[in-house]
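Sample intake sheet
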Amino acid sequence: MTATAPDLIAEIASRYGASVAPGATVQRLPTGVSSRPYPVWDEGKRQLIVPDWKEEKARMHRASVRMGRKRADTVRAQAEDKLQRLRDMHAQGMAVAAMAEALGISMPYCRSLLSREGLKMQVEPGPKPETLARIALVRDLIAKGERRDAIAKAAGFAKVQYLYHFMRRSMPGEALPPPPGRTKADHAAAGKVRSMTLQQRRAAKQERIRAMVVAGADEAQIGAELGVVNLRHLRRLIRWAVPDLPRPKPKRAGSALGERDAQIAALLQHKTYAEIAADLSLTRCQVQTAVRRMQKAGAIPAEVARATRARRGKVQVERRCLETEAEISAAYRAGRTVAQIAADRGIGPSRVQKVLRRAGVEMRDWRQVIADQRRAELPVLVARGMGGPEIAAHWGCKLSTVWAIAAAERVDLDSAARARRRAEFAARHAAQAELVRTMVLRGDTDTEISRILKISRSTVQRMVAELGLQGRRGRYRGGEA
């Protein structure tokens, strides 16, 4: 639509701040009709133009490039200013840490800038006051002749090793006093021993032990000389150094037995510890102690004690096994399954089966037993009104298993459901018929009744016929009102 109304032209010119030549025309584009974009005012060209998306994208790209160049120039200027400040501070003799703190950068970055500029790093200042105080304290303690551990504890070090590191770093050329009781000769001997190989050290120890054995030293003297506390290890070293040395046999106590020990020894041949304790009015622990004492004294051989323990264990095991077999067999004959018995006793099903076979119990095929039980129980459950899903949940099996058993036994699983649905439908139909009767007697039409009850007109007419209300005119009007 084209219009040349002066008022419209003046309004557009005042809105955009443009000057319009006399006789200009204005083209109006209805919203939602034209697919062309609206014209915009170009300040550079001083006129209305239709924007092009390609030209707009190119313009935005040029603007971003200009901003990036401007930002790069700014960053470059800042970097140059930072480098100039770094050169000035380096010329003033400032340390790396001070320069990094003044520029707000890290010390590694400051060092990299200095190396890139070819500037020599300034020597760091001396130790801190606390380090100087610690150095003075360590020197004072060394001069007093204190031990190494005491010096480390007084200087605030948790280990002597930390004191070594501190002196190597902050006190080069100074050393700690040697441990007390060791001279330079001892240090030289220790270094000579450390320089020996393993075979040489072993040979020297063997020669040392042989010399002490030849001199008549006993085990206590040899252990004190070698610094060995464990007697068994010391004897092993002596046998290793002097293999042909005769080993003394341990002395045994006399074989004389008391009256009670003799009774226990006589009963050990055919009775257990518990039976002996019951016969002699003793405790089982007293019998065991007497047996060990007689065995150490050599009064009875070790085979007798072992046979007694084996006899006792065998009797107890056999008694326990017989009781377990009897309980498991009784439970299985009472109708419990192998899995149930295993769960009750905390054992495996295979062990229960072994016990039953050993007891001579006839094993049942539980798959057939369960199937027979389910076949007998199915009609009872259906009579109670349970359907297929309820029976499957009750048995803990699949729904297909229930349907297979029902098909084999010719049991109708839907009879109860159908009877329930039939009863529900009868109750619902009776209530609906009563409503229809009330509405017919009130004079409502078929259309109104079907709309209110949400049923079809044919259903309404069938129910009216069933109720025998067709002959009653009253206010009832069949069909439309």
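Comment: The beta strands are 2-3, 26-27, 40-42, 47-49. The chain has a mean pLDDT of 77.
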